[in-house]
Amino acid sequence: MRSLLVIRVQPTIAASSDATIPLTPEQLLTANGYHVQVTDSETEALKLISKAEASILHLSLADVEHWVHCLGKGRSDAPLLWWCAPDTAASSVESCEVETSFDGILTPSMAGSEIHWTLHFAARRYMERKQWEQERKQLQSRLEDRKWIDMAKAILCDLKQISESEAYDLLRKKAMDERKRMVDVATAIVKAHQLLQS
Predict the structure, then answer these.
(1) Which of 63, 75, 135, 186 is 20 to 30 A from 85 via CA?
(2) 30 forms bridges with which residues in the sheet?
């Protein structure tokens, strides 16, 4: 992972005379050999996201939801990290409960090896998160299919005065005869029954 996109919408806090200027993510990452592009524009971010191997949000947690939604409009198959520093964390204490799942967090005090391993683990976490999301969608789809099939079985049991297993066999046979999925046959039965009932 070498090409990174930094999203920053607020200027870095100006340092007082006795404090040091806080490091920005692009300064730290560039110093450690990463190619970094920075933007504060949604339009530009959508163009740059397709070339980035990860996105780093250098903004307060209050702004995170908006930018995650924006980045989701473009290519959203890259890890998402948050830059946790005084200029982002200080304004985020009240809104630390965000819906977004970050794949990693970077801080200004990290050494090169820590950055490398954080990005490596963020990529792994991202892949696991995407796999979980896909499995979740599949399970939800199966549950929805099961609901239609169960409703159709109940209708067939009631109308034909047959058992559940006989209704299931009838559904399965109808699906095979029509070369359709069982859930499609079940959905048609339920919708036709609802139409006749109304």
Answers:
(1) 75
(2) none
Helix (H) or strand (E) holding 83: strand 80-83
Position 14 in a domain: yes
Domain range for 159 is 137-197
Q: Give mean pLDDT, residues 59-82.
A: 81
- CATH number for the domain spanning 182: value is 1.10.10.10
d(CA 163, CA 152): 12
Helices (H), the chain: 25-31, 42-48, 61-73, 86-89, 112-160, 164-178, 182-197
- What pLDDT is attached to residue 66? 85
